[in-house]
Every structure is written in C-alpha cells, then in structure tokens.
From TrEMBL, chains A, B, C, D:
It comes from the Bacteria. InterPro entries: Citrate_synth-like_lrg_a-sub, Citrate_synth-like_sm_a-sub, Citrate_synthase, Citrate_synthase_sf. GO terms for molecular function: citrate synthase activity; lyase activity. One of its GO terms (cellular component) is cytosol. Its EC number is 2.3.3.16. This is citrate synthase (unknown stereospecificity).
Length: 276, 276, 276, 276
C-alpha cells in the first residue's frame, strides 16, 4: 500500500535535503563550522560561539566585547512585557520550563521584538542615501518626515516608559570607543545620531534612542544582517524569560491568570439573552 | 564532503520513516482514513471528521451528538484563563494569528488543560477496581481518601470560581439520556457520580463535577483514550482562544502587558546596589 | 520596596484592561456572547458556536453548512506538510499533546497557512475594482499580470503537488448551489472564477483554484474578515495536526528526527580545521 | 455591564499579583537583581549575567568559566535533532525568526531536552544515599540495577549515535581541574563517575557519559537546581536553533517538509473506500 515509488536513490540524495554548513556530525565527531567541538570547550567563550555559529568565523576580541555588551544589556525589562508575563503564566500551567521559554520567545514578534531589526533596516537605508550623495542630516530629516507623514513611529527611538532609556548612553559610549580605536567604522552610529537629532529638531522634548536602536547600532556596526538583530535579541531576552519563568515556578502558583481571582475582567458584550 | 554514505536505498525505505495510516495523498488524490476527500465534502460534518481522523471510523449519529456537545461546552471561560490571556497578549505583539493561537494552546498543560485527561484515568482506575470486585462506593471512597491523604485535588471536581459549574448538569443530562437509549454503557457516568458522592460524604459543602469531569465522562463513554481527552479539549478551547485573539487584534492594541501601563509590578528583590 | 503607587483605583479600572465582549463569567454563570452556556449545550452545534464566538451571532443553517464544509475539507494533507511533521516530531520529545498541537499551529504562517487569507484580500481587491467600474475579466487579468510582473504566485491558485486539487470542485459546487438558493451573493465566487480564467488565458496548462482559494471563496461569501481566513484554517488543520501527533504518540518513537538514524544529513560547510 | 465590583483597591494590591525579585523598573531606571543596568553594561559578561538573573548574585570567575564551558559545549548537534529540524521547517513557513526559535525550544521536552535535568536528580539521589552511609559504588550499582530492572535508560549515559561523546572528556577535565583548585567540591563528579563505572561492570561495551551527564555534573557542582539544568540547556541550544533557522531562511526555501517532494510518505491505513 506504500505510495512511495520503489526506484532506488542514494542516501546522499536524501541527506542533501537536510544538508547544512553549520555542524557536521559523524560517530564520535562533532564539528561546529569546521572546528572539532572538543577543541573549543574551555577555550571559546559562549559569545564567541554565538558569533561563530551565526557568521561562520570567530570574531576578534574587541568586536566580541561589543556583541557581549549588547546581548547583556537587553536581558530583561520586567514582568510587564507580554513575553515575560506569558512565560510566567505558562510556568504555572503544568508545562516544561522549555515550553514556558518558548511561549515567551514566540511573542517577540514584529511589534514586540522587531524594532531592533527595523531600526537596522532604517540605518542601512540612511547609509545608502548618504552613499548616493545626500547629506546625512537631510536624509535623516527626510526619513523622519516620511514616518511622521504616515503616522508611524521611527523604530528604536523613544520609549513609552522611560523618558531616556538608561541603556542608551553606556552602549553608545562603547561604540564611540570602538570607533576611536578603529574596531568598527562608525557609520551606523552616525546614522543613528543623525536620526536622533532629526527627531529632536523643532520639538521641545527629545526622542532619544532606546535599547532597540542602541543595540541595532552595535549589531549593524558588527555586520550582522537586520533579521539577525531579532535573532540576537531573542537570545538575549531568553535569559530574562527563563529567570522569570523560574521565579514563577518556584512560587508554586497554579494556573496564574493576568488578574488576581478576586478581580473580574470587565464585560462589554450583549446582555444576557436566550435562544429563540 | 557529504557525511551520508552513498549506498542505494529505495524511496519506500525513506518514505516509511514518515509512514502514516491517517491520510494518503497522490497527485490529484487525498484520502482521509481511506475516504476520498471529495466524497466527504458537504456530507461529513466537522465533528464526525474529528472522530474519523482520531479513531479511523465514523461514529453513529447519537455518539456524534455527545461528542459535539462536549466540544461545544468547553470553548471558552473568559480572559482570566492564562491560555486566553497569553493569546490576547500575543495578538498585540506583531505575530500571526496562528502564532497567537499556538501560544494559547501551548499553555493547556498538565495543570491548565490536563484535568480532563487525569479524570479519565481516574474513571478507568475506578472501573477497574469495580471489575475486580470492589463495591463502587467503597472504591470511590478509597480513591478520594488516597487523594486527600496526599493533599491532592481529585481532578475534575470542584471549581475555584463556580460553586457549581453551570456546564455540569446539561452535559450529564445528555449522558443519562444516551445511557437510557443504549447509546453508551454508562459505567463512566456511574463512576463519576460515585466519586462526587464520596467527595460529599461527611462534608457540608459538595464538590460537584466541573467541566473537566463532565466532558471526561462523555469522552470515556465514547471510548476515547485519556490522552485524547486533552487533545479534544485543545480543539474545543482553540475556538475561544481564536475568538479572543481576534477581538484583541481588532482593538489595535500594541504590546499589551498584563497590567495597564500606569500600574507597576511590585518588586521584592534586593535594594539598589553597586558593583564592587 | 514596592514600585506600585498606593493611590486607590477601582477593581473596575483594572478589570477594564481585560474587558471583553466574548464571554462573561460570574460565580455559577458563563455566558457566550450573551447566551448562558447551559442553554447552548446539546442545542448549538460546534460549527455554529465557532461562528457565534467569532461573529457575535448565530448563523442560519444554510450558511452554517457552507462553513462546516470548508472547515471539514481542509483538516489534513498528510505528514509532508511541515506543520504536521513538526507536530509529529514534537510528540516524540516528551512534551504534552497540547504542546505538539501548538508546534504545528505555530507553523501555519504567511507562507504555509496564509494563502487563504491573501486570496480573500485579493478577492476583495477584485470586487472593489469591479465596483469602481472595471469589467471583471479585465480587472482579473490586470491582477494576474501584476503578480506575474513581480514574479509572485497568485495566492490560492495552482498546487505544487496536485494538477487539480480534488477539493476544488465539491467546494465550489456547494457555493454555486448556495448562490442559486440565494444563501450567498456569489460575488466572491465570480471573482475567483475570473482569476482562474485569467490565469488560464494563453497558457496550455490551467492553474486551477486549490483548497486555499476554494475555502477563501466560502469564507468571503460568508462575510468573514480575511485574517479570520487564517484563523478558520487553523481550527480546521488542528484536527489533522492532532490526529498525526496522536498517531506518532502511539508509536512510542522517541526523539524522532526528519531522517532515519542511518541516513546522515549532508554537510556543506568548511573542512575540519583547528584553532590557531 | 461591568462584572468587576467597584470596591476600591490599591495599585499596590494589583501590582503585587505581578511582583518579582528579578528586575525593578521605574521611569529612567532598570535594575537587575538590584544592580542598575547602566553599571553592568560593558562590565558584566553575558554568562555572568545569566548566573545573576537565575541565582541573584554574580559568580566568581572560576565558577563562571565552568558555566561558560557547559553552555558553549551544547550549542548544537546538527539538523537531525527534531528541535533543529522543526525550527528549520518553521523558518520556511512565513513566520518570524523568533517563532522559528520558539518552535525549536518547544521541542526540548522531557525526552529531548530533559536528560540533563533527570541526571542531576539522579546525582542528587546518589549523593543522598552516600550521605546516609552507603558506599558510593554500591549505591551507584543499586541505581543502575533499578533502572535496568524497569527497562529504563540511565539518563545522561550512552549515546545513540556516538560510541563516546566527544564533549565528555574536555568537560570532565575542566571539572577535575576545578576540583583540584578547590573551586567546586567534586561530589557530583564522583557520583557520575561511580554511575559510569557501575554501568560498565560486567559489560564488554562501556556506556560513557554523554553531553547531558557532563553538563549535569557541572551544573550540579555549581549548585543549580535540576530543573534549571533544562533551562540552561535551552539557552545553550537556542544558539544552534537560531543558526540553523537562519541558514534555512537564507536558502529561500518555502514550506520545507521533512522529505523532498519527489519522495512520498508511506501509507499504512485502510484501502480506498466509499461512504455507504
């Protein structure tokens, strides 16, 4: 009754469907991007290995430190973030800790986890306009005007909670230092500062970079593709998601909803009615 | 550089790794459990098809009606359930509606979605003790005592919110009618009633069956395996999860957390401190 | 140390953050869109309840039958779909059946589960062009030309596996009958047929509607919003996902990967190398 | 129509429902376990921050290095693992990179991701038996006999693919060195070696520790709770999941199933049949 034709094929043909350049295994052997894993254990740092796995080569120490700072800075922003809250609730529902973490990560979508990626795309756009001859400030002003005209936020700027995100300054200080030392080029930093200035022009209240733009600057300076901006944020925020899920697990709470049981959700639907 | 040996194998060998008895496809053909899909469209109901897919054969109409009632009864219990709340939050994070539904379903774990399955296992245990000669009331009393002795809830009985779950009576009425008509045997109903009576003995407040036990009785009478009790609940509650995610999507909210922004989560950790 | 201000607020204020028009609960009461749940059990079908929960009112029987047929038709397409395969693999990894279903649902994204939604948007676009005075065939031809010009598929037409999807004809027959009986208007059916004709013009091989377009026609004729096209597909395909996860669970397999253990994934990365 | 009573409550009461000891935020302030985030950026490593978030305090450098080695060692084992394969498939379905990572993490359940946690529980059990006076070898032999008697694997020992897991030796070398330097006590290492010896006694083929036991030894020596063994593995393997999802994303594949389209899944169900 098999629907599969019985013409021969090679194992290689089938294996090619799942071929990868990331990791090679054979009995007794595991190589990550060509490096035998036993050569790396105790020698390669975790952050260097993140870079190796995503990019194919190890970074130099100065670049690795920048990546490390960005990953460290975004680990958590407390339980009012829906990703954290959902993971905490999951941890009380009788699922594995991995399922709780997955629940949180699943919420880091375009709106909740995508601002860094979108900001990286914006920085690339601004650098491209600059390359084509536009003055940086003019091009930044045009981008801000385009967003405002469409009623859209400029991703990575302003924060609904912090007047000035406390992670902005120390991250940008590290980038400035790296530029001064020739570690990175500094063009994404310049682009982000130009956008920040354009957002402030003619306004009484500044709209400073938040964590998304500050890490976007770092990831862009390090040459990561914008979509990996989201990916790196996922790795970073997974630490906070895990810490919160674990705290909730230890509390012993069961089926934790968003509100204490004594507070009922409001109701806005039709009044009680009967079937005809 | 391929690690896959090039010894020939047949497509059948590889296809067998993914062999299934559920659905057969070939170009221009789709058969569900042997039935060409075009013969079923417009003729088989959705609930009959659920049964077919899970059990391999279609149910008779009377059994199908019982399954339909159980699936219908459990579609929703409002946004205070963590599964619903998490799906609503997901819907504001810039992920697809499918990701929001998956988020809710992911939370229907042992504690939040598993009581029906556990109750089905308990009913099977009680029926087995009865088969081995114990009086039903004695065996039910023993099971209740065992749970109380271990400080455990009897799954499917009592509700942290409803003194009496409004879904209990109409569901059990349907089962009683089906027993009277010879549609189902009634042994799982008897077992559940015996547990309910045992829980009430010597107490001033009854601990009546909730939706989990009422649907567990139906699924058990219909011959579903206990683990499918969880599976059927997932299908049922997916309706509520989708309805709530959709309502939230239409609201246009962005990054909805568990609390309004004006209310801060409390903090129980160490006071502000500095690195040495 | 609490960061939450101690200014009083009402429970209503907090409850309003989670207010909903879908379901109202109070001790001993559950109302779905205003209907006490006990009035619906044994009277409302599952499919009618899906409609009620998503739309706020019950459908008439003829419309409900159309919805039922569409939900039934799309329950499964076998384990080669990534959603099904991922759910089957999940079922062997020691997670709950709900986590396995969530894994499958999570994969029904824009590309794997979104064609119906995109087709509904296309039908709405075509109807709008028609309303603005364009001949239907001309407007359909223009849309096809636009897609071809951008190298894009027309969502809902053609199938990478079936020369003619066996679900197309019986679903469209039901719509035609419903149009003849005045149950639905038929404008989305006309639009879809016009697109099908436009795709065939000047080609030797037709590109007939697949399941996504056929169900998109039904959902559009019934007045569902395009995004709910995805939502309804999720409910429908959840049946197949559950059936496959359950079949895999019963097999007792552990940590099932995509390939039998004897077949190794190919490797395309760098040759073995050492740290400096 | 609000179901929420209008008795006043304080914001603190509601905030307490979400109270946490992990992170405190206030406008312009973010503190992780009491440390202002701006003091940590550029100074705390990512791995130290993982420790801080999970344990509440920073580790000393020697302990941090052990944690780093364990996290680094388990980042990937190739696309034949269901977690990796599912994430790769997800990446072709039109969902966000975060959803693809969540899909992979969701599969790291009791069977696929839980062996480390179970091994940590076993090591704790063996240490406890030793504390109660049993000779370590006797107690290890008893545990092995218990598992064999129940037909169960001893979690963390043996590998279905590697005769000897290449990650075992370098990880245990690091632990031995740390014991020699007084960094950790060495009791979990002794326990694991006793189990390995007990598994080998009277057998011709050894059953050496795999990555799960080797990392379990480290996490146990560092004082992590067993369930965090799973949590730390999730953080580690997320790197491989992300790298593979990203590789697949770059391939441009759409709706990648487990088999090439030319190979059909086998079918084991009933022959074609018709409705009566």
């Amino acid at each position: 009754m098999s629907a599969a034709a019985d013409t021969p094929m090679t194992r290689g043909e089938v294996g090619d469907w799942w071929a990868t350049g990331v990791t090679r295994i054979a009995p007794g052997e595991i190589e990550l991007r060509g490096y035998p894993v036993q050569d790396l254990i105790g020698r390669a740092t975790f952050v260097d290995t993140v870079w190796l796995m995503l990019r194919g080569e190890f970074p130099d120490p100065a670049r690795s430190r920048l990546l490390e700072a960005a990953l460290m800075a975004a680990v958590d922003h407390g339980p009012q973030a829906p990703s954290i809250a959902a993971a905490r609730m999951a941890a009380t529902c009788g699922v594995g800790l991995n399922n709780a973490v997955a629940t949180g990560v699943n919420l880091l979508g375009d709106v909740h986890g995508g601002a860094g990626q979108q900001c990286m795309e914006l920085l690339a756009d601004l650098r491209a306009r600059h390359d084509e001859g536009a003055a940086l400030d003019d091009a930044a002003g045009a981008i801000v005007a385009e967003h405002r005209g469409q009623g859209r936020y400029v991703p990575g700027f302003g924060h609904r909670f912090h007047p000035r995100d406390p992670r902005r300054d120390p991250l940008l200080d590290l980038v400035e230092k790296a530029v001064a030392e020739g570690v990175v080029e500094g063009r994404s930093l310049e682009a982000a500062l130009a956008l920040e200035a354009a957002l402030a022009r003619g306004r009484t209240r500044p709209v400073p970079m938040n964590i998304d733009a500050a890490t976007a600057v770092i990831y862009a300076e390090l040459g990561f593709a914008p979509e990996l901006g989201r990916g790196l944020f996922v790795l970073s925020r997974s630490v906070g998601i895990l810490a919160h899920a674990w705290e909730e697990r230890q509390s012993g709470a069961r089926i934790k909803g968003p509100l204490p049981r004594s507070v009922l959700a409001g109701y806005t639907g039709p009044a009680s009615r009967t079937l005809p």
